[in-house]
Design brief:
2 copies of one chain form a homodimer.
Chain A: E1 34-40, E2 50-53, E3 58-66, E4 72-80, E5 87-93, E6 102-107, E7 114-124, H1 126-139, H2 146-162, H3 165-179, H4 185-193, H5 195-203, E8 208-212, E9 216-221, E10 228-232, H6 240-253, E11 258-261, H7 309-321, E12 325-330, H8 339-343, E13 359-361, E14 364-366, H9 379-395, E15 400-404, H10 411-424, E16 429-433, H11 438-447, E17 451-453, H12 462-472, H13 477-480, E18 483-486, H14 495-515, E19 518-522, H15 558-570, E20 580-583, E21 590-597, E22 600-607, E23 614-620, E24 629-634, E25 640-644, E26 646-652, E27 659-664
Parallel strand pairs in A: 2-9, 10-11, 10-19, 11-12, 12-15, 15-16, 16-17, 17-18, 18-19
Antiparallel strand pairs in A: 1-3, 3-6, 4-5, 4-7, 5-6, 7-8, 7-9, 13-14, 20-21, 21-22, 22-27, 23-26, 24-25, 24-27
Helix pairs in contact in A: 1-2, 2-3, 2-4, 3-4, 3-5, 6-7, 9-10, 14-15
Chain lengths: 667, 667
């Protein structure tokens, strides 16, 4: 709209002598009077896409401003990326009483995976404006409104021409009555203000000065991207892929949705690490699954000790029968024996003398690992090959990938890879394992990762949990970062678990499973495994990362796990992150929160002190919309309680219970 | 980066049979590893421009994210719109201790009016990264770092080739020493880590992976757009333009910078309003200056009772001699006698019978006013003509316009008009008089208005003032909306002034002049004029809008006004809005705040109760950076006090003082 032009020379008073020099050009066509602004939810000015899942409705809002007093209307429009027809729903002013300029409404519903577009439109309703003005004049006792009535008849004529059916006839008669200057004024007024006429006119209204905002995009993924229970195990400790197949039924029976396997590929021999991360392996040590590649193959091969590709296909098929899916680890690094080191040395970093450079984070050396050089000359063939690795597994039925340390690879690579794979298989889910600074974790989520590990394992005090969950449970983070609250990982045995005993495990399970729609357990948790390699370490002693353990699906916590997973599947309130409201508990050892969805309210109270009984007062505020007194049942043990608005006494003894999971009845 | 493609057909496992079908194209060139995000200050994704004034520095910040551990550097670049050379200043991490990803720095300084562009750049410093890694390895006691040293020598060679002067020689020697494999390792390490070498390398570093954000714009206006004291008068009450000329010296002597005149054009006769807004004028009634236009001319003519165009030019020249400027009222409406109604009927709204439609806000009728129809067929000629009106006055030396009710005209018109006029005369200042909803007030500021009237006249309680000023004193509002705190206007005689007596006037003057860099007085305020037309009205009795009054520049409050204007000119802390910090005062009748600039701190304490003495405790917090005990002098009367961090007793009796304006000494 604005064009640069040269400055005019200065004249007598120091001001430009000729006012016609260098003027800004008029707009080409008459501009709209309507300004649509501050749209939500939009992420980074549209550079990245807001995320939702299939079945979600989206609350949208915008500021809409226009000069003058005419009646304005607005709507939100949305459509799947490849369609041309917009769906539409009305927007309404948020503060209608004060004619507030913030408008809101709902996109209802996003019913397919993929990229959706949405925008806000607004327009003037001349007939409604005219009707409003006439109404005020009549109320003020004014007469002689013949000119106004003539205007109204013209507006009705235009609308009538667009209408059909009964509405057309109604509008035609109204126009005639309004235009009839032989009729008494009162009759004409009544015809003009008739509510059914107003309703019909609204249905067929002319959208004056129709203005549309820019369109924004929403990335819609399948529901599993938001909600699921994950179980992680190392196949080599379970008897390889056949052994995992045999355990599937029990794992599915406990209510898990995703079975995540650390890398299942051949493991390098050179510089293999020994048990407990010793720099040198002893004969028989299996090495780290993350030292990927050997003479048997690389990222598209399966470790011979685990089985064959047919075993893998069978595992995937069996899992599908049980409504579970297999998630693989996508770890972009190579052992010294990976075929690519010899086939494609150009993909790796070299020393000046030409030798390959192993991974380092000085002064640490990872001599069993070689990293890709994403900036190498042959980066195109490298990126293609890495994508093909993922597509290989996609072809073998994998639709969930847990990505190892994405924060040490370029963001642009992930953005391209995720889009590429989704283009082939839109249902693919990507979990980012990046324990790093918040800005990078957020950036990875923005470029496309469906889910993210979080700081959850290190948030153990009640206030830490409350602050952290509050942050990720609301926009902007909740618009693009979906948390996965693993209670432990092969790299993270938190001090809290090391020192807390069974009580700690029980409460962490309850918190993870009720605070986040996606949560996970790394095998061993259900047996209260808690011995670190040495004091102060977060590494497990005799970690499965460096040796084979004997494992099977059993442990004292599994009853609780199974119960919790069943409850989560039954209760939609536990299937989203953004519906949490923390409640005062008047004891720092207690964390209390409500989760609401539809007409359902759950209240969780957890004792984060794993050793001592703690008591407190949970305060239920009025804004939860609950009645003054309400019955609730503890879904963990069936006990029933009567709670009330305001103060409710709670006592939790870790010897018998980690917390309450109360379902409000009939509310 | 992403291209749409068709979905591949599904294969055996339900997944696309051919992974090579419909893939997302690789980026054309190797993408950067650096992501620059969340730039501040940017307004509405760059749709509108952030505002600053000449001489301002701008604090900028951005989130900069990159994979890996290499040393990254960043800078902000800026330039006036028409230049090609960027100026540059470094950015630093906000939380350097934790390697935080938020970077900040300063644009220093915006030294000319016009549109400036700025952006953030970031890059990798390979030498600094290499040096850091080498340093860690040496600290960890590692040996045999010959390969590392070879790499370092290569990096030094590349930098040396770019260097000149002493630096080049220094780098050359360092490269030689590092590369010398006949020298002891220790010697080579020392050469590599020598601080002067590091400094030289930084000066001539290669900017690897240089990445730039999008450029944002800043609209820089002259200082008067932010800071000034305004005085409003109706020329017809002062003896016309010659009379105003005679009063100029006194007005300038009181420290006013801008003299604002309501419309000076011919006034219509038909349907002229009478005194006190009577619908029908009596003979001799002058009518409202806002009913613009008569047989003598329209918006580019001067009312014959006021003088001639020569009188006006002389007024402007005299004002310039006194370092004052004349602000005119730009009121886009016509009386029934305006020449344009007959010359250009196509510019106005018509009834169906073809007659012109006077202004209405049903049921109110403004039969002396006709509004332009900005959507008429001939909108282009209308817009041109309206712009030419403003440029006419610009040619006659006017560079400040107070715009009447812009919220009833299209935003797009203002955006175009302001840009058009600024294109001819960049120093033009536009004040928006729009007492309407916040979204529209903000929109007007965004499309270009330099200043805005605000809700100040209705913010009288201490908490109202604190909340409102806090909102406009910080981003985003402070980035684009500059307030002008008129204490009264011809339309607004607040209840507070009506009932408060002289004490109310004194405290409102103090608040306006210290809270906002731009403030104004409508003549009569200095005489405590406080009689409304009738109880409950905000209109003045016998308002100058509808009759001629006898006025001259005198009144009991003028000493205070003069003193305050002098203090404001001497104290930079009072020349910005965004440097205010409200202090607790422990009495709702007291409002206390600090204003800081450079090393200077002012503390204002005002008693908003105009009738009763009030006492309280002003709490000075540590974060103001003041010493535990400090001397201050009250600029209003010279009295000196000793204040301290923490609690300070204050008592203010409206009979003697409205408040304190303390300047901290030697702090």
């Amino acid at each position: 709209m604005m064009e640069q032009a040269t400055r005019a020379p200065r004249g007598r008073t120091g001001i430009a002598a000729s006012k016609r020099t260098g003027q800004v050009a008029l707009p080409r066509k008459r501009p709209t009077r309507i300004l649509i602004d501050e749209l939500h939810p939009v992420l980074d000015c549209g550079r990245y896409r807001v995320k939702r899942c299939v079945g979600d409705s989206v609350a949208v809002s915008a500021t809409i401003v226009r000069d003058g007093h005419d009646v304005m209307r607005a709507a939100v429009q949305w459509r799947p990326g490849e369609q041309s027809r917009w769906r539409e729903a009305p927007l309404a002013r948020v503060d209608a009483a004060i004619d507030g300029d913030r408008w809101s409404g709902m996109i209802d519903t996003l019913d397919a995976v993929g990229r959706w577009r949405w925008r806000v439109i607004a327009w003037g309703d001349r007939f409604a404006s005219w009707r409003e003005e006439l109404s005020r004049k009549i109320d003020a006792g004014q007469h002689g409104l013949g000119s106004e009535l003539t205007e109204g008849a013209m507006l009705l004529e235009a609308i009538c021409a667009r209408a059909s059916g009964e509405d057309r006839e109604l509008l035609r008669r109204a126009r005639h009555a309004v235009a009839d200057d032989s009729a008494p004024e009162r009759t004409r007024y009544e015809a003009a203000l008739e509510p059914r006429v107003a309703a019909a006119a609204e249905r067929w209204q002319v959208r004056e000065d129709l203005t549309a905002s820019e369109a924004s995009e929403i990335e819609v993924e399948r529901e599993r991207a938001r909600f699921g229970a994950w179980y992680e195990l190392f196949p080599r400790s379970w008897g390889g892929l056949p052994g995992v197949r045999r355990a599937l039924g029990e794992i599915a029976g406990a209510g898990f949705d995703v079975l995540y396997l650390p890398p299942i590929h051949p493991i390098g021999v050179a510089n293999r690490k020994g048990r407990n991360d010793k720099p040198v392996a002893e004969p028989g040590d299996p090495g780290s699954p993350y030292a990927i590649g050997g003479i048997e193959g690389g990222h598209t091969a399966i470790h011979p000790d685990l089985g064959t590709l047919e075993d893998f296909d069978a595992l995937v098929a069996d899992a599908r029968e049980l409504d579970m899916e297999i998630a693989l680890d996508y770890a972009l690094q190579c052992s010294a024996d990976h075929p690519w080191l010899s086939e494609h040395p150009e993909w790796f970093s070299h020393r000046p003398d030409g030798t390959l450079k192993y991974a380092e984070n000085p002064p640490k050396r990872y001599m069993d690992i070689y990293n890709f050089d994403f900036e190498c000359e042959e980066w195109r063939s490298l990126w293609d090959a890495l994508r093909d690795v993922m597509l290989f597994w996609v072809e073998h039925g994998v639709r969930v990938f847990r990505v190892d340390n994405p924060h040490t690879k370029p963001l642009a690579f992930w953005e391209w890879l995720i889009a590429s794979v989704r283009e082939v298989e839109p249902d693919t889910i990507f979990l980012s394992e990046a324990f790093t600074r918040q800005a990078m974790m957020a950036a990875l989520a923005k470029v496309g990762f469906s889910q993210s590990y979080t700081y959850f394992t290190w948030k153990n005090a009640s206030w830490e949990l409350r602050d952290y969950v509050s942050e990720i449970a609301r926009p902007p983070l909740s618009d693009f970062l979906r948390p996965n609250f693993f209670v432990n990982t092969p790299d993270i045995l938190s001090e809290y678990l090391q020192t807390g005993g069974p009580g700690a495990f029980a409460v962490r399970l309850l918190l993870a499973g009720t605070l986040s729609p996606s949560y996970g357990i790394y095998s061993g948790f259900e047996r209260y495994e808690a011995t670190p390699r040495h004091p102060g370490s977060e590494e497990y002693l005799d970690s499965e990362k460096y040796e084979v353990r004997e494992r099977s699906f059993q442990g004292p916590l599994l009853d609780s796990v199974t119960r919790l997973n069943r409850i989560r599947r039954e209760r939609p309130a536990l299937q989203r992150i953004d519906n949490v409201a923390f409640l005062p508990a008047e004891n720092d050892a207690l964390l209390a929160y409500a989760k609401r969805e539809g007409g359902e309210t759950l209240i969780v109270v957890a004792n984060v002190d794993p050793h001592r009984a703690q008591e407190g007062i949970v305060v239920v505020p009025g804004e939860l919309g609950l009645p003054p007194v309400f019955a609730c049942s503890d879904l963990l043990d069936g006990a029933r309680y009567e709670w009330r608005l305001g103060r409710n006494y709670v006592r939790l003894d870790p010897a018998s219970r980690a917390g309450h999971l109360l379902a409000v009845e009939n509310a």
